[in-house]
Amino acid sequence: MSTPPEARPGRVAVFGDVGGQRDALAAGLVALGADPGTLTLPADLTVVQVGDLMHRGPDSAGVIDLVDRVMTEQPDQWVQLTGNHEALYLGLPQFHWPERLPGPSREVINRWWGTQRLRVAAAVQVPGDAAAWLITHAGLTQGFWRHFLGLPDDGVTAARGLNRLIGNLHEKWLFRPGVMVTESIDLSAGPMWASAPDELIPSWREAALQMPFHQVHGHSSLVDWSTGRALGLPDRVGRFTPDPVLRHTTTTVGERRIVGIDPGHGRRPAPVWEPLVFPDARVVAR
Prior knowledge:
Layout: E1 10-15, H1 22-31, E2 45-49, H2 60-73, E3 78-81, H3 84-87, H4 103-114, E4 118-119, E5 121-125, E6 133-136, H5 142-147, H6 155-164, H7 179-182, H8 196-205, E7 215-217, E8 223-224, E9 229-230, H9 234-237, E10 241-243, E11 248-253, E12 256-260, E13 276-285
Parallel strand pairs: 1-2, 2-3, 3-4, 6-7, 7-12
Antiparallel strand pairs: 1-13, 5-6, 5-13, 8-9, 10-11, 11-12
Helix pairs in contact: 2-4
């Protein structure tokens, strides 16, 4: 019997949006020690992928096949989260995208969701941090945390609360849209839709309370990496640290951090980017 991921410290690599770029994803895995031929992950590595595996790039079906194979062969070492692009295939579409997955790939997405292999959140315990890091696709806004989750006071409880909504009477809460769909800013936007510069960061910066855990998200960025231009209103976003090599942004809110890791792949992969890697960490909720 394999050792459960909660008991296995090692490297945890959090990958941002893949966007149909299979070769970029494979190269990122190989750089972390995956076998170049089979992409079998090394024993000390667990991958958390934040969703939006498909669209934009040339090989969405190839990305789905790669992830499905790794999750089948090494289920304890791959945690797959749901993005708004996966959500297109899980119910009533909330937006239009010109590219559609082929039938077999759509079936895989629905199989993952139906068997709860596709999750909404994960939590990672990192040495030196008392609070576990919460990982979602778009981030957990202060309003959603308050009004829909009941103010969990740690990342593990928040991740478990989000995942319990899958298949629940209140599952629709997970798909709660924000400004990207409605064109109206909502500081309670859901974990698949919150805009980092417009909703996620301001919701916590403007709250008169301490964010109880660190966060990692994809979906949107505080920087247009193609131009280097900061996004959002400066007085609402506040100060943050961009890393143009990793294509990560780090915002400090009180004593906690929010790290954005969407590399901004388009029709072509980003020229430089890396996943966020936590050494000697553990996935403690999925």
